[in-house]
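#onboarding

Welcome to the new folks! Below is a worked example of what a typical request in this channel looks like: someone posts a single protein sequence, and someone else replies with the predicted structure as tokens. Don't worry about understanding the tokens yet, we'll cover that in week two.

Example request:
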Amino acid sequence: MSSHLIRSLRLAVIFCLALFLSVASLQAARFQNQQVKPPNIVVFLVDDMGVMDTSVPFLTDSKGQPKRYPLNDYYITPSMERLAKQGIRFNHFYAMSVCSPTRISIMSGQNAARHHATNWINPQKNNAGPQGPPDWNWAGLKKDDVTLPRLLEKAGYRTIHVGKGHFGADGFPGAEPLNLGFDVNIAGSSFGAPGSYHGMKKFGLGTRRAHQAVPHLEKYHDTDIFLTEALTIEANASLAETVKADQPFFLYMAHYAVHAPFDSDPRFADHYKDSDKPKNAQAFATLIEGMDKSLGDIMNQLEALGVAENTLIFFVGPFFTTKWPVPRRSVVKKGPTMKGACACRSSLPGPSRIPRTPIRSCCRSPRTRCRHRSLLCMICSRRFSRLPMSNRLKVTSWMVNRSINCSQASQIKLTGIPF
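Example response:
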């Protein structure tokens, strides 16, 4: 073989090797960029939904396996089933049994004994009552409170509020989510129940429940649309706008459903008309199914936008029962809880790739509600996103199973990398 041919082959090999290394470097850089990209977050909060008000079983038998009850076969929630298959179901959580304390805890990371909003907030008059707590926080959240959306906003997130607020009374900063760190507020106000679920009734405007008319949805007035659907359309539009701007997002999707009034969603009424349940229970089931459709529509939107794999979805909501383990939701009863121990559901798909165990239990502790925010704060940190995947799983699992607050999370060290 001639020396010229040998040199040519050497040059060809060197060129191919250089090309390969260049492509490999680009792929590595692209992978590194993906690693440090913060995850998107969706908190999907359902109001007044019972632990049995779904086709997904959350109660377990003596061996810790999911156990179905008749109501699991009555309700139709395929999107919840879809989400549960992708993530983890947590069946033991502590939550307040009324609206405002739960919502303020999610925003602030504090339990109700600390933030002092220990009851639902009447937006029009102080409802402490003659036997009320001495430090009752009727005003709700304040402008200078440290909130989850405010923390995420500082980290570069676009923070979107859609649906029910109920963070504070009329005339106080907490009545307006924009005061709490949200960049966008759609339909959030001081009250907890909508004037109406029907667009034909202007969502309560002009009715005897006008003081609870849902704001910001005027374009849907006098149209044949249900409130749950209108909120979903607006949420998906905000998601598309944010993804187009190449910005990470925090979507707080807080449906008014399935809170009273029990307006029947006509899209699903035929599914329950032949049941033996009373009319109110049938209407309640349509609210459940409409909420579930909303969850599916948002999941579909995330996939269509190409961001589903980098999005964490927390599905949460307190349940209300007077009996354990079988709630009396069959007669659509909302009431006090026994012993103060409630359940909260959460399914977490997304980039951290948490192992797909069917059901996990967390200790019933007043700190559990606050742990959601601490976990989110940690997962969204850039240092966490730089960790190897195996170490992300370790620290996430460690956080879930311990009562860790944000200040403690900042001290966690894994493989020498502090958070």
